[in-house]
Amino acid sequence: MTNAMLDRFRAAQQPSITRLHQLEAAGKLPDRYPGLRPCFSQAIKAAGAPAVIAEYKRASPSRGVINLGLTPEVAARKYADAGAACISVLTEEAHFQGSLSFLSEMAFAGRPLLRKDFLLDPLQVVETAATPASALLLIMRMFPGEAEVREMLTQCARYSLEAVCEVFDEADLDLARWAGAEIIQVNNRDLDRLTTDLDVSRRLAAKKGAGELWISASGLDAPGQLAEMADLGFDAVLIGTSLMSQDDPGAALAKLTAVSTSRSRG
């Protein structure tokens, strides 16, 4: 299924993909990151549902500029101190004002890092493997079919990276499963209207399979919503805009999770 916004994101990736293929032809692809990568899925499981993946997102097409003043280092420290299980890092430059360098700048916090970008080519997995990222995002709707997704998943396994396969509906979910996905992220955003609706997660939650790790993303900003997602079977929630919009994202995260935990225990 095509979407005008995803088409723009896809087009924005082409210069980077071309550059990577040129580097491959010259034998100059970046070396694999030599350090240890904390395990993304294990961190989520250890945190207990709902684990929080806190996102560093400076801007977005739906909101424009969100927070350019918060540096990657400060964000990583605040999120780690507030108990985030993992940190999602927007690295897309053209529409989100991200940078691949953010991953190296945030690794010191010791949390597994998810590279969130619009990745299409196996060489982008190699590029990610040269950073401290533990996982990367694969948006099912960006790929023409199962073979292309499976190729990306195979490349991730080759480079010891976990793949978070993002779905918007049942067709996306089928594609992810046919390709062998183990981590499913349900995005509650309508790509045409750029609105969010948690009914997407509510509907798809019933389709969670045994052994799969599920994440709900977009539109989550209240403790009751986090508790509901955990009750529905989601292992984690990804929260970005609602945290980055605050003067102190770390304090906002601490407050959100404290109330959510107390409600779930109640």
Write structural notes for this entry.
By secondary structure, this protein is of the alpha/beta class. It has a single domain, classed as TIM Barrel. The chain is 43% helix and 17% strand. The chain contains 11 helices and 10 strands. Helix 3 runs parallel beside helix 11. The protein is globular and about 50 Å long.
Question: Quick one: how many beta strands?
Answer: 10
- Distance between the amino and carboxyl termini: 42 Å
The description of the largest β-sheet is:
8 strands, parallel, barrel
Order of helices and strands: HHEEEHEHEHEHEHEHEHEHH
Compact overview of the structure:
The chain has 266 residues and is α/β, with parallel strands linked by helices. Helix content is 43%, strand content 17%.
Blueprint (SSEs and pairs):
Layout: H1 4-25, H2 40-47, E1 51-56, E2 59-60, E3 64-65, H3 72-81, E4 86-90, H4 101-106, E5 113-116, H5 122-129, E6 135-139, H6 146-158, E7 162-167, H7 170-179, E8 183-187, H8 199-204, E9 213-217, H9 223-232, E10 236-239, H10 241-244, H11 249-265
Parallel strand pairs: 1-4, 1-10, 4-5, 5-6, 6-7, 7-8, 8-9, 9-10
Antiparallel strand pairs: 2-3
Q: What keyword list fits this structure?
A:
TIM Barrel; two-stranded antiparallel sheet; alpha/beta; globular
